[in-house]
Design brief:
With 477 residues, this protein is mostly beta strands. It contains two helices and 26 strands. It has helices spanning 14-22, 223-226, and strands at residues 2-11, 33-52, 55-73, 83-103, 106-128, 146-170, 173-184, 189-190, 193-201, 206-217, 245-258, 261-281, 284-304, 311-328, 331-334, 341-351, 354-363, 367-368, 371-376, 391-395, 402-403, 407-420, 423-432, 442-444, 457-459, 468-476. It has a 20-stranded antiparallel β-sheet that branches. Strands 18-21 form a two-stranded antiparallel sheet. The longest helix has 9 residues, at 14-22.
């Protein structure tokens, strides 16, 4: 069993409000307050049975109870009523897993599973009722975009799942076909997802491989959708018309082993469709399976394994190039979390009980939609005096057409490990981001000023975590 809890409460003082207003923060948020209380309880009971040296199974009974209370008040009265939600996405499951070595060259793995999803959401939230701009950037100063709505969702969904795969190994040839199916009682839709891996390892320890598969997931049981707070997305759990979201993955790989060294090269192409999107109407959001996404890329990986020598070098390095696009509301464009270039390097040296290691990470910055102009909001804001000024940003029609700067980081760790007859004890000291660097990754807009060469600015967000030193201890028996 396990239990985790987090509580966050934030309410600005008068001094903080004045300071933020002076710095150009949105005056609509000057009376903003927020609280979020989250706890989760997980329990599991396992029973393992070994019928023979070649046949074993595991029966698992598990339960996850999650509670989330979210409260947000912009201090705008009836114009933007507070969000006040109690959310409980609870899951109960029973799973039977079997592994059977039915031949010297074949191993069967299979499982059957039942899940009961009991989702509850009560309170009030803000529902979008007007279409956003092409960038999807909402303006809370526009009262026509939102309306306060009650939430009272109590939905129970059942999912019956099963999968089977068999690994065949004839010398260097490996073939692993598989099949998975999920049946949701609400929509009465059953998925059928084939997948397979084929690889061959030569005497030179060279391996070539290819894999492909289809993966589907019913959005009605997705806890991330259900935990949405600003839109009434809890209704997805009751939407019998929604189809499963779908992904198709394929990879082609090459691997070469040379004693303690391993070199890998892999190309991948993935497509996603039937993704759930929200369409605003005057009566609330309508959800449809209209979203799409596609990613392609290549990864190069080099590793030097440990050899249990008194003194030895070890580590690995990887470089990944990725191109990612998504199709939202009928338009293809750059995916908001695309990082074309990613480099990771881990290197260490061990001598006796001592190990010194370093990790270097370099990433492309995330894309963003840049601000190209501004307009005075209107209504109570005329921009004639400082007290009634609120310039709203106007975003470029080139969605995610700009990119934040490259991010990089260096971590260092020293470890001391002592071996005993009963096991070992080790302790370590690590410093994350040792040279204290954080890339600017936020577009800061000053609501006190119109658009100019200095408004907006690309900044490091306030309160960003930079250098982090910490220590750790580990006993193993």
């Amino acid at each position: 069993g396990s239990y985790d809890t987090m509580r966050f409460v934030r309410k600005l003082t008068d001094a903080e409000k004045a300071k933020k207003r002076e710095e150009g923060d949105d005056p609509m948020l000057s009376n903003f307050s927020l609280s979020n209380d989250v706890s989760s309880h997980s329990q599991g009971l396992y029973y393992d049975f070994h019928a023979s040296p070649t046949l074993e199974n595991r029966l698992v009974l598990y339960n996850t109870l999650t509670y989330s209370y979210f409260y947000a008040d912009l201090g705008l009265g009836a114009f933007f009523s507070p969000i006040n939600l109690n959310i409980r996405p609870n899951i109960l499951g029973l799973k039977e897993k079997v592994k059977w070595d039915w031949s010297s060259f074949a191993t069967l793995r299979a499982a059957a599973e039942y899940n009961l999803y009991y989702f509850q959401s009560t309170g009030r939230t803000q529902q979008q009722t007007g279409a956003l701009s092409a960038t999807g950037m909402p303006d809370i100063g526009n009262s026509a975009l939102y309306v306060s709505v009650p939430v009272n969702v109590h939905e129970m969904n059942s999912l019956v799942s099963g999968y089977v795969e068999n690994k065949f190994q004839w010398g260097g040839l490996r073939f692993v076909p598989g099949l998975r199916s999920d049946f949701l009682t609400l929509s009465r839709i059953a998925t059928l997802d084939p997948r397979a891996l084929l690889s061959y390892t030569f005497a030179s320890e060279t391996t070539i491989s290819a894999a492909a598969g289809q993966y589907q997931s019913h959005p009605q049981i997705n806890t991330f959708y259900f935990n949405g707070v600003f839109n009434n997305v809890a209704q997805i759990s009751a939407a019998a018309n929604l189809q499963p979201e779908r992904a198709r993955h394929s990879t082609l790989g090459f691997e070469q082993k040379m004693n303690a060294w391993v070199v890998k090269l892999e190309g991948f192409a993935n497509t996603f469709d039937r993704l759930v999107e929200s369409y605003a109407t005057s009566t609330g959001a309508v959800f449809r399976n209209t979203g799409e996404m596609r990613t392609q890329g290549i990864e190069v990986f080099v590793r030097k394994d440990r050899e249990d020598k008194e003194r030895e070098f070890f580590g690995w390095m990887s470089y990944t190039f990725t191109r990612a696009e998504d199709k939202s509301f009928g338009r293809w464009g750059r995916f908001e979390y695309e990082q074309p270039h990613s480099i990771k390097l881990v290197a260490g040296y061990r001598w006796g009980a001592h190990t010194l290691a370093a990790q270097v990470q370099v990433y492309s910055g995330f894309p963003y939609t840049n601000i190209v102009n501004s307009v005075c909001t209107g209504g109570v804001y005329t921009c004639a005096t400082p007290n009634d000024t609120r310039y709203s940003p106007i975003y470029s029609s080139n969605t995610y057409g700009a990119r934040f700067p490259i991010s990089h980081r260096l971590d260092l760790r020293y470890t001391h490990k002592s071996a005993f007859s009963w096991g070992y004890f080790s302790w370590y000291i690590e410093i994350i981001n040792i040279y204290n660097y954080v890339a600017a990754n936020q577009q800061k807009w000053n609501y006190n000023q119109p658009y100019s060469a200095t408004n907006p600015k690309i900044i490091v967000p306030e309160g960003a975590i930079t250098i982090i030193p910490y220590v750790g201890l580990e006993w193993r028996f």
